[in-house]
Amino acid sequence: MPNVSHDTHDHDHGHGSHGHHHHGHAGHSHASGVTDQKRIGIAFVLIAVFMVIEIVGGILSGSLALLADAGHMVSDAAALAFSWIAIHYGKRPATLQLTYGYKRLEVLAAFVNGCALFVIAGWIVIEAIRRFAEPVPIVGRTMLIVAFAGLLANIAAFMVLHGGNRENLNMRGAWLHVLGDMLGSAAAIVAALVILLTGWAPIDPLLSIFVAVIILRSAWGIVKSSAHILLEGTPDSLNPTEIKADLEATVSQVRSVHHIHAWSITGERHMITLHAVPAPGVSARDAMVAVQQRLATRFNVEHATIQMEDAACGPASSCHAREE
Fold first, then answer.
1. Left if phi > 0, otherwise alpha if psi is -120 to 50, otherwise beta: which for 233?
2. Which residue has the higher pLDDT, 148 or 113?
3. In the chain, what are the domains?
4. Pairing of β 269-278 and β 303-309
5. Distance from chain centroid for Cα 320
6. Which residues make beta-bridge pairs with 277?
7. Which of 231-254 are b and which e, b meaning 16 or more Cβ less than 10 Å from the residue's Cβ?
8. What backbone torsions phi and psi does residue 275 show, to the nearest 5 degrees?
9. With 70 as the cut, is the pLDDT of residue 5 above it?
10. What number is the average pLDDT over the span 208-237?
């Protein structure tokens, strides 16, 4: 089919000015990448140290709520390590084999983290049911001290991550992990206090199930979002029907647009491909630039691949395809 196809990374102008062909995205993602990476590194150290303390404390005190929280912390530490590695490798340039670079590692890390959380939550629930059948003696004081220290560590990690980029699925995953952890530590403190004051041991497995439910909720959100990106799903902010209607209504240089595909490389980096037919008397290049500018300003899409089609040329005709 006769066409003019053109591709641009140029974020600011949508003109495909070849000067910054490869650098349209570099600016802001790298700046946030460095601080996000640092934040994740600090949070990892905090969580990893307290994870060990909680595991030891949980075993010594016999508390499942503490072990549940420690289990969550293990996944947290792994999540943060994954996230750190993903951001680290994500900065590598694209190669001929990986033309989009390593950015997707972040999404993959988020997906693996979410799946791991499901397993941990399942283990906690099974263990809690076993505890109801055969209660274990619990040392409330040890449990309280360890849970309180764990809560402080989580609050510190939470504050560190809180300033990060919330749009980034990876950072959101890490932040949610730590938020779930804080609730886990709080639940362990409540359980310890109840055991110290009333001696009612079933509160421990009861609250550990509560923690498991929280873990499952955050895990489901992360798995769903990351799987959607891995399956090349259309981003929430980009509805092909809406894009078609918007371009045909506002860009006078085109007569029609079709074959619209939208997907994401990472949670905040979207791509679009589409075919467009220029309006009568408008050059393919002018129509294309107009479409690109509209996609950049209205839909915040920095990378659009547009194939221009000449309505007058049928598939069988001998019009030559002009490549820009």
1. beta
2. 148
3. 36-231 (1.20.1510), 240-308 (3.30.70.1350)
4. parallel
5. 43
6. 256
7. eeebbeebebeebbebbeeebebb
8. -110, 145
9. no
10. 85
